[in-house]
Amino acid sequence: MQAPLRVGIAGLGRLGKRHAAALAFNTPNCKLVAACSPVEAERAYARDQLGVASIHEDLNAMLQDPHVDAVVLVTPTSLHADQAIAALKAGKHVFVEKPLALNVPDCERVLAVSEQHPDLVAMVGFVRRFDPSYLSAFQSVESGEIGRPFLVRSQTCDQNDPDGFFVNFAPTSGGIFMDCSVHDIDLARWMLGRPKALRAFATGTIALHPGLQACGDVDNGIAVVEFAGGAKAVLYASRTMAHGHETSTEIIGTEGKLLVGEHAAANRVIQSDQYGVRHAVLKDFYERFEAAFAAEMNAFVDACRGVSPLTLTLSDALEATRIGLAITRSLQSGMPEVV
């Protein structure tokens, strides 16, 4: 039997902690052997809560560890490209959270280095591709059940955070479309058969968080993307939902349509009483996609161990960034932008 994949993780913030715990306790055929963070509290978490023996403050030190086979990067987006390249040059498989980078040249640099190391797996975390419902919808599209798909309407809507965590994050996030809608962009290309994007238009508003104005961002945005062959994507992103997290996608074809994730229901229970008819709602993205995060990491580990290939490519991540940037430019210019 093959030995377990030995994984090191860099970044132990909100999502990084969840990835680290999954790698330490719930991901088959791998072992979390190292962790890296410039934050002492995060290093202490890895050491004391996860039992990680090899703790680093500097990523380069972890990359030089011969006992690390693969690296998971859950670091600020501005660091993704350089860190992914460093991992590949150090001979490590690499998983990097989305988006791959905040500009096309950085994405292209990662692709170029990855092509120089064909024996290494490089994967970007577009987690919705691993969600059972989205996978089922994709299989329906592929089998022709709705005819030729020509329109995708998709949204990523987060529950409002009165403290405005994302306002502080906005200057480095790339904006609402790069941070939130990049998932919907990737889903649209996936469902439509990976067409080439031609043009994008976006508009938005600040409904609750005026602090976003300083960096040209909005808390609610709408975008339209036009693809070669006539297909379209309509995207909505929001950070101000009152009730909870709501991710949904509609794929419309010539012979039918598919709808994934309507109403953000936490379960299938509908309660009716003197207050009305209602259901429990999801509070955040991780609650909605916990199973998908697990499947995503399993797929990465399996690919690194040579068990099964990846269908999600770095080129997909590059195109998502390219489209997201065109949408962001349109938001700022108020005009359609060529992708």
Automatic annotation (TrEMBL):
This is Oxidoreductase. InterPro entries: Gfo/Idh/MocA-like_OxRdtase_N (IPR000683), GFO_IDH_MocA-like_dom (IPR055170), NAD(P)-bd_dom_sf (IPR036291). Residues 137-258 form the GFO/IDH/MocA-like oxidoreductase domain. Keywords: Oxidoreductase. One of its GO terms (molecular function) is nucleotide binding. It comes from the Bacteria. It comes from Rhodoferax lacus. Residues 5-121 form the Gfo/Idh/MocA-like oxidoreductase N-terminal domain. PANTHER family: BINDING ROSSMANN FOLD OXIDOREDUCTASE, PUTATIVE (AFU_ORTHOLOGUE AFUA_2G10240)-RELATED (PTHR42840:SF3), NAD(P)-BINDING ROSSMANN-FOLD SUPERFAMILY PROTEIN-RELATED (PTHR42840).
